Amino acid sequence: MSLGSCRSSKSRFWRKPSLRYEIVKSIEWLGNRLRFIDQTKLPLEEVCIETDQYTLLADAIRSLGIRGAPLIGVAAAYGVALAGLRTDESNLQSFRNEIEYAIGELASTRPTAVNLSWALERMRKNLNASLSIEAARVVLVREAIVIHEEDEEMCRRIGECGSQLIPDRATILTHCNAGALATGGEGTALNIITTAHRMGKSINVYVSETRPLLQGARLTTWELMKAGVDVTLIIDSAAASLMQQKKIDCVVVGADRIARNGDAANKVGTYMHAVTAHYHGIPFYVAAPSSSIDPPLEDGNNIPIEERNASEITEGFGKRIAPEGTNVYAPAFDSTPARLITAIVTEKGIHRPPFHFQ
Length: 358
Ligand code: MRU
Prior knowledge:
The protein is α/β, with parallel strands linked by helices. It folds into two domains: 24-155, Up-down Bundle (Four Helix Bundle (Hemerythrin (Met), subunit A)); 164-352, Rossmann fold. Helix content is 37%, strand content 17%. Strands 1-15-14-11-8-5-6-7 form an eight-stranded mixed beta sheet, sandwiched between helices. A four-stranded mixed beta sheet has the order 12-9-10-13, covered by helices on one side. Helix 3 runs antiparallel to helix 4 and helix 4 packs antiparallel against helix 5 (133-162). The chain is globular, with a radius of gyration of 20 Å. The structure holds 5-S-methyl-1-O-phosphono-5-thio-D-ribulose (MRU). The site of 5-S-methyl-1-O-phosphono-5-thio-D-ribulose has 18 residues, from helix 2 and strand 10.
């Protein structure tokens, strides 16, 4: 695996001082409670929820009110901190048991994004190393904030490194949402695009709607329009003909879990875009922080793929579109083999195949 250095790209392009863009903050720690955007309401309503209960956070993760691999990890870490602040246990072992229960609840919310177990494991280590309840409360809050700050920094570096892959006047295809809404910072795949735009490159983005929960149509268009990037929405199955017409220069997507060999799980439909891009000789880039890499997993075959409730397909957003009793297969993710991936961008740089993550 070769790792491209993240050199400064100021030589040709620079941040245009005149460009105005709105930064989206998906999550915010308020000292003793958490504020987050309820993403199920976007783009029709911009609703923020404030809570001091980890159970409400767990429900929000399950229902995709909070979503995107890095953001799930950050939110779960804050959930553990909230559990520590709220419990009235006075015995250290009982306190630990209660927090361990909260960790289990949060871990069970979604299976595919490895960031969730990665963040919870960090919280568990801090819990077990604390010698008093008071110390544990302080340490858990501090660790959650550190995980959040690290995520912000990883996003910034991914944007900076990955933007070097984007040529001027590029037309890019992206799938699902890997922007600020999916992270504790300014995003991964989408941050590559918005960073290139802010550097002054002329960028057009095709966003595939991302059936069935429409993260592309609802969230990515919303973010890109706020960032002032030219965006065109397509249905997922229109991507192939755009590639055939040579209207796509590269594909940039996020990932929920990357195996040691570079196989990458992301929102269902990503594999379809990767196969089509490969057929048409179009570069296919994956962007993710190191917290999405799972080196013990040899390849993508063993990545757990979440299956969602059939109703999200048969009667999504409250409108029935298939007959009662229809058999449904509803995977939320798929795994793209490393051989279809041109490069993987992490906060450490641009990784080229053959990939071998440690
Ligand atoms: O089901 P979701 O909306 O949580 O799926 C999100 C994705 O597939 C993203 O592309 C991935 O988490 C990367 S986010 C930086």
